[in-house]
Amino acid sequence: MNETLKVLVVEDSRDDAELVLLELKRAGYAVASARVASGEGMKAALAGGTWDLVLSDYRMPGFSGIDALRILEATGLELPFVLVSGAIGEEEAVAAMKAGAHGFVAKHNLSRLGLVVERELKDAKARKARRQAEEELARNLVALAADHTVIIVTHSPVLLSVCRNSVVLDRTKILTAGPTPEVLARVFPHQAGGPRPVLAASKAEAS
């Protein structure tokens, strides 16, 4: 692995953080890292650096892995977030995953860390590519809406966000439906002198 992996370690124990980084190096990663153990420290590190991955303990004095996850989510950064902890039960691990954590590795089983990190980095790359494709599709549809009625059926928050921020919203009708992010679009030429389509609020906005 040629590129350096930039890792933000959220951990109050220096020794545990060094063990985690050592395991990444054993897995073949060249690692550049910083360690923080508080919310303010994490906010400063995220704002002041570029990171590929966040590894977080679950329980720390005055701070937790869930707190760290919420801080990461608030930044809007799409980084893999993996809990590495020895003080978490199965139910807590499941709850953390449902809350948005991407992976979990027990400290007594750090040999799994390399595989989990490899998987989450690949998944993060796929999520980024999908978001970029959706943004490009949204820009193309918005451009079409200057001369056409564009009806979009989607559950994609990225697509809806880009379309709603467009200056041609008065000529775009957006409908939300379905449990999946697949996008269906039909394009109709405007009829000369005909009424412009009206922007329809999503279900969330209408409620």
Rg on CA atoms, Å: 22 Å
Q: Regions with pLDDT < 50 over 5+ consecutive residues?
A: 165-207
CATH level-four homologous superfamily name of the largest domain: Response regulator
- So what's the oligomer here? single chain
Strand element count: 10
**SSE succession:** EHEHEEEHEHEHEHEEH
**Which CATH top level class of the largest domain fits?**
Alpha Beta
Mean pLDDT: 77
Per CATH, which architecture of the largest domain?
A: 3-Layer(aba) Sandwich
Structural classification: alpha/beta
Number of helices: 7
Task: Note the gap between the termini.
Answer: 50 Å
Q: In what order do the strands lie side by side in the largest sheet?
A: 2-1-3-6-7
Shape: elongated
Beta-strand residue percentage:
15-25%
| CATH topology label of the largest domain | Rossmann fold
Could you list some keywords that capture this structure?
disordered C terminus, 10 strands, 43% helix, 2 domains, 5-stranded parallel β-sheet, single chain, 24% strand, 3-stranded mixed β-sheet, 207 residues, Rossmann fold, 7 helices, alpha/beta
Description of the structure:
This protein has 207 residues and is of the alpha/beta class. The protein folds into 2 domains: 4-128, Rossmann fold (3-Layer(aba) Sandwich), CATH 3.40.50.2300; 145-206, no CATH class. Helices cover 43% and strands 24% of the residues. It contains 7 helices and 10 strands. The chain has helices at 14-26, 39-48, 65-75, 90-99, 113-144, 157-164, 203-206; strands spanning 4-10, 30-36, 53-56, 59-60, 63-64, 81-85, 103-106, 148-154, 172-176, 184-189. The strands form 3 sheets. Strands 2-1-3-6-7 form a 5-stranded parallel β-sheet, sandwiched between helices. It has a 3-stranded mixed β-sheet with strand order 9-8-10, with helices on one face. It has a two-stranded antiparallel sheet with strand order 4-5. Strand 6, helix 4 (90-99) and strand 7 (103-106) form a beta-alpha-beta unit. Helix 2 packs parallel to helix 3 (65-75) and helix 5 runs parallel beside helix 6. The longest helix is centred in the middle third of the chain and has 32 residues, at 113-144. The radius of gyration is 22 Å and the shape is elongated. The protein starts with a strand and ends with a helix. Residues 165-207 have low confidence and may be disordered.
